[in-house]
Design a protein that fits this description.
By secondary structure, the protein is α/β, with parallel strands linked by helices. It has 3 domains: 2-262, HUPs (Rossmann fold), CATH 3.40.50.620; 279-378, Four Helix Bundle (Hemerythrin (Met), subunit A); 391-455, no CATH class. Helices cover 45% and strands 15% of the residues. The protein has 16 helices and 15 strands. It has helices at 37-55, 71-80, 84-101, 117-129, 158-164, 201-213, 227-242, 273-276, 282-290, 302-316, 332-342, 347-362, 368-378, 390-404, 408-423, 427-439; strands at residues 2-5, 10-13, 21-26, 59-64, 133-136, 139-142, 179-184, 197-199, 217-223, 247-253, 256-258, 261-262, 298-299, 442-446, 451-455. It has a 4-stranded parallel β-sheet with strand order 4-3-9-10, with helices on both faces. Strands 5-6-7-8 form a 4-stranded antiparallel β-sheet. Helix 2 (71-80) packs across helix 3 (84-101). It is elongated and about 85 Å long. 41% of the residues are buried. The mean pLDDT is 91.
């Protein structure tokens, strides 16, 4: 398996620290508002990696943190007259619900920042003792220039970073590049050796990763927007505190863009996951995201979503019955699927294999549906026959029953309509017709040249 390592800027063979086991950390949400499509892109991407590693037999420990102490949370709490805990708990539940709706698996470990304060304080004390950090009037800062590899992940020379660095009002930094490990805060703070305060954002992930996965981990993943300064600062403080390499493989997903701009709350151009799910199902959003390589930007448009919707229905409405006893690992499709996914998670190529299987399943090819089901599940698709309501099925079945009582010519017209819909890739109409026949006890079997009708039983 090969993955693109953002730290070295090369595709590398993946070799875990401990054979057969993978320790994986993903930067989680700051819980103060609804999750948007950009978050969906991030967490679906790493859900796929998690699923695929497990599919290949690895024992994976997936840790994704929750930032529940932050300036944005505090501002929202003040605005709404609530405690920071009330705000963070409410929005954490909303985030969890959104992830479940997207069919993302829960991480094995989901630590909260406020429950890991002791580990953060311990790490800051280590950094001060080693000369990599200093206290200034209740704040604690990291000495960036004491870490010689600073800027390597983001590929930014130190002199370039210096030109843009500033000291804000109230800060007592030795150098403009230094960043906060601990912030003095009398109103919303916690007790520490440096007075009442709260942790800086970057130290949270370093402390939680060390506590739950160890000093050196296999994979650290997140959005490309976190490369600098968040991940750059994580590397600096972790390696200085621990005295060893922090992460072997850094992975980053690209943005979701609207009109070529990154989708974000700060720009006000975001679409929430819950709003998106009012018009599109989870399979559609997943297909929309996986059609593009995870490192590339994804441009949002109604046309792209409509195309993904048609594709998702084509996959999940394929004909067949899943055989759980079938061993997919002995099939050429498994080999082709793994070859695609082993090549830095080439999901677009993996999807092409699934679409071919859907076509073959609809032609009643033996085992095609089962292989589609098993491989599709690795990409997080669900195969419940969705998209056609009971009301639609009842109306369609009643109509066909009425036609059956009249003359066969009308049946031919319906089959011709279905043939035309299939040719135009209008799978919604084609599937409604097929399911309506099925409700009437008639199975449609598509051959190369025609469609054969058979009575059930």
């Amino acid at each position: 398996m090969k993955l693109f390592n953002s730290y070295t800027n090369t595709i590398e063979e993946f070799k875990p620290i401990e054979e057969g086991k993978v320790k994986m950390y993903v930067c989680g949400p700051t819980v103060y508002d609804y999750a948007h499509l950009g978050h969906a892109r991030c967490y679906i991407t790493w859900d796929i990696l998690y699923r695929y590693l497990k599919f290949r037999g690895y024992d994976v420990t997936y840790c994704r943190n929750v930032t529940d102490v932050d300036d944005k949370i505090l501002k929202k709490a003040e605005k709404e007259g609530k405690t920071p805990e009330e705000v963070s708990q409410y929005w954490y539940k909303q985030f969890t619900n959104s992830m479940q709706k997207l069919n993302n698996l829960r991480p094995d470990i989901e630590p909260f920042a406020t429950k890991t304060l002791g580990e953060m304080i311990s790490m800051v004390k280590d950094l001060i003792a080693k000369g990599f950090a200093y206290e200034a009037n209740g704040d604690v800062y990291f000495r960036v220039k004491n870490f010689k590899n600073y800027g390597y992940l983001s590929k930014q020379p130190i002199d370039q970073l210096e030109s843009g660095a500033r000291i804000e009002v109230g800060e007592l930094k030795e150098d403009p590049l230094d960043f906060a490990l601990w912030k003095h805060d009398e109103k919303f703070g916690y007790n520490s050796p440096w007075g009442v305060g709260r942790p800086g954002w970057h130290i949270e992930c370093s402390a939680m990763s060390r506590k739950y996965l160890g000093k050196t981990i296999d994979i650290h993943a997140g959005g490309a927007d976190l490369i600098f300064p968040h991940h750059e600062n994580e590397i600096a403080q972790s390696e200085c505190a621990n005295g060893c390499k922090f992460v072997n493989y850094w992975l980053h997903n690209g943005f979701v863009t609207i009109n070529k701009e990154k989708m974000s709350k700060s720009l006000g151009n975001f679409l929430t996951i819950d709003d998106m799910l009012k018009n599109y199902d989870a399979n559609t959003l997943r297909l929309f995201i996986l059609t593009n390589h995870y490192r590339m930007p994804v441009e949002f448009s109604d046309e792209a979503l409509a195309s993904a919707q048609a594709g998702a229905k084509r996959l999940t409405n394929a004909k067949g019955v899943h055989n759980p006893e079938f061993d997919v690992t002995k099939t050429p499709e498994y080999e082709a699927f793994c070859e695609a996914m082993d090549n830095d998670l080439n999901t677009s190529k993996a999807l092409a294999i699934l679409f071919d299987l859907a076509t073959r399943a609809n032609k009643d090819e033996k085992d095609a549906y089962t292989i589609l089901y098993k491989l599709g599940t690795v990409l997080g698709f669900t195969f419940e026959k969705a998209g056609i309501s009971d009301e639609d099925k009842t109306k369609a079945a009643a109509h066909i029953s009425q036609v059956l009582a009249q003359d066969f010519k009308s049946i031919e017209e319906i089959l011709e309509l279905r043939k035309k819909a299939r040719a135009e890739k209008n799978w919604d109409i084609a599937d409604k017709i097929r399911i309506a026949f099925d409700e009437c006890g008639i199975v449609l079997k598509d051959t190369k040249d025609s469609t054969v009708l058979e009575l059930k039983g």
